[in-house]
């Protein structure tokens, strides 16, 4: 399947430069994307998802420019911006939607992750009734269970209890073992030990 390749990427907003002529590869395996608050982690995930186009340079995967990727390629990406509002839907209903969108969806893994994150008691409550942490856990459980060839996870430790962070670390390791060709990118503001990262990329930071 190969890496997502960023070449000579520039990106900025309103005079603030986040990336200038930045090149990086996101190969199969686990990548930790490190950057201070506001360094552009979410923006890089959005570039990888094709939700955002760079102002210069290219973001290519499987022969396509991600911002113009055909639907078949987009279907191989799991990405949901954590800032997006949730519709009136329960975690179970949302899981069913995701199952329809991702060919590699694993129902046993979804069930296991709901259990592992302690979400079973909340799985029938609408998202807006859940705590931020529980909504985050539902998102993470779906990301992991999606089997998506390119899985993008933004600041997963935010609003998670310690037990869930431990569960997530082992679930990430297990997913990398299970699907060695899967590209999983996790953005976090700091180093994160205890996860077998294939690579760690540090963002240059806003100028
Ligand atoms: N669509 C946009 N329009 C204008 N400014 C934006 C846009 N997207 C991001 N920014 C700005 O770019 C900077 C980087 O944002 P981004 O969310 O990518 O960083 P981050 O590293 O994920 O930081 P944080 O963890 O604080 O969200 C921020 O100052 C943000 O306000």
UniProtKB/TrEMBL annotation:
It comes from Comamonas faecalis. It comes from the Bacteria. InterPro entries: AAA+_ATPase, ABC_transporter-like_ATP-bd, ABC_Transporter_VariousFunc, P-loop_NTPase. Residues 4-205 form the ABC transporter domain. Keywords: ATP-binding, Cell membrane, Membrane, Nucleotide-binding, Transport. PANTHER family: ABC TRANSPORTER ATP-BINDING PROTEIN ALBC-RELATED. This is ABC transporter domain-containing protein. SMART domains: AAA. Pfam families: ABC_tran.
